[in-house]
Amino acid sequence: SSLFSNLPTIPPDEPFSVNAAYQEDTHPKKVNLGIGVYRTSEGNPWPLRVVEDAEKTIYEMKDHGRHEYLSIQGDQVFLRLAADLVFNFDSTTKDRERIASIQTVSGTGANRLGAEFLSRYIHPRPQNVWIPDPTWANHHTIWQLAGTSSSSSTPSIKIKTYPYYDSNTGGFNYNQTMKKLSSEAKENDIIILHACAHNPTGADPSIEQWENIAQLCKERHLIPFFDLAYQGFASGDVDKDGWAIRHFFQAGLEFCVAQSFSKNFGLYGQRVGALHVVTKAPSATITSTGHDKDPGTTEDVLATLCHLVRGEYSMAPRGGAEIVRTVLSNDGLRQKWVEDLRMMSSRILGMRRALFEELVRLGTPGDWTHILRQIGMFTYVGLSENQVAAIRERHHVYMLRSGRISISGLNESNVRRVAMGIDDVVR
Ligand code: PMP
């Protein structure tokens, strides 16, 4: 028999398989609410206007070095701009010294690199990683693979979940989350947090709840790990969407941030991202020469991250990062980006309202106000698995089994149809 006859059976990845089923459907009025990508009101992909401008600028520069290798760390100007976006630093800050940043293969690569780093190098070794239930499904895959040795398929860190979602309110289940973590999380355990626009539920903690989560992490010595895939996509305001991370920073915690530029720059296939590892403020010591000396924590973290990346793929790709760098380093382009972001997030907000209003107009049984309270690209609309199957079969509306819908798949010409489908399957 073949060498490969003993491979495990891997189930297809759901967003991609729902997308494939949608592509095969020949119904003229089919609707795709499965995969998390931005679509225009005509249902088309949208290369941001500012990205097209930046691409032109880069091309016209005719830089002969534009296809050279980056360093292992990546494009350092890009990394500095990326960190400033997350932490809202100004040019005079010394806080940047607390952060080791490395360019990654988008948000997925940042999650994976962070998982690898924490599983291999933290002592005492974290016993558990706490993942929200539900979450972006890839968190499970990433942590199953992280830190496993070739001789064993058992992850070195146990995956546990905390009860994130309250289906009664359509919101974040703050009480049960706090209860679970404060009774069961152990010192150095890792807690995965979606910085904003939680995928798949669209339910985020309030400011006060974030403050209490930070406090809990501090008291119980947990390691927060922020997944930041939607900065600017939740509220349209990058600073507002980064609030929780900055609060944890100011609280003096050590933590990770996996940053993606897939959604907020529409650079999905370019794989642009960064991992930021935040360390404690360096305690300056006076050396014999009288100078402040950094104890080297961030340098050590960075060297370790570079080691992991070198052994994996040497360095992240440079094309997409160059686009982001060009936009973020130019005031005019940056302003244009803010406008593009507002355009996308306000179209999504408008579609939330339109779906809600259609359901109310139809008198669809149930409370649909969670659609308005939830935020970002996704909503847990509140259909059962059977109802999801029925709406696909009877109305050609595609969504994930959990009832997660990507709001950006809605537009003026299909929202009524989707609402009527929901109405039909819940009655
Ligand atoms: N985290 C979350 C929560 C996401 O929703 C996504 C995108 N679906 C990612 C990370 C990573 O996406 P990418 O690798 O394209 O940056």
UniProtKB/TrEMBL annotation:
Any one of the GO BP annotations: aspartate biosynthetic process
Domain Aminotransferase class I/classII large stretches: 29-419
InterPro entries: Aminotransferase_I/II_large, Asp_trans, NHTrfase_class1_PyrdxlP-BS, PyrdxlP-dep_Trfase, PyrdxlP-dep_Trfase_major, PyrdxlP-dep_Trfase_small
Molecular function terms from GO: L-aspartate:2-oxoglutarate aminotransferase activity; pyridoxal phosphate binding
Cofactor: pyridoxal 5'-phosphate
Keyword Cell wall biogenesis/degradation: no
GO cellular component, one term: cytosol
Gene3D superfamilies: Aspartate Aminotransferase, domain 1, Type I PLP-dependent aspartate aminotransferase-like (Major domain)
Highest taxon, organism lineage: Eukaryota
Sequence similarity: Belongs to the class-I pyridoxal-phosphate-dependent aminotransferase family.
PANTHER family documented for this protein: ASPARTATE AMINOTRANSFERASE
Record's subunit section: Homodimer.
Extra information: In eukaryotes there are cytoplasmic, mitochondrial and chloroplastic isozymes.
Name the record gives this protein: Aspartate aminotransferase
Organism: Penicillium steckii
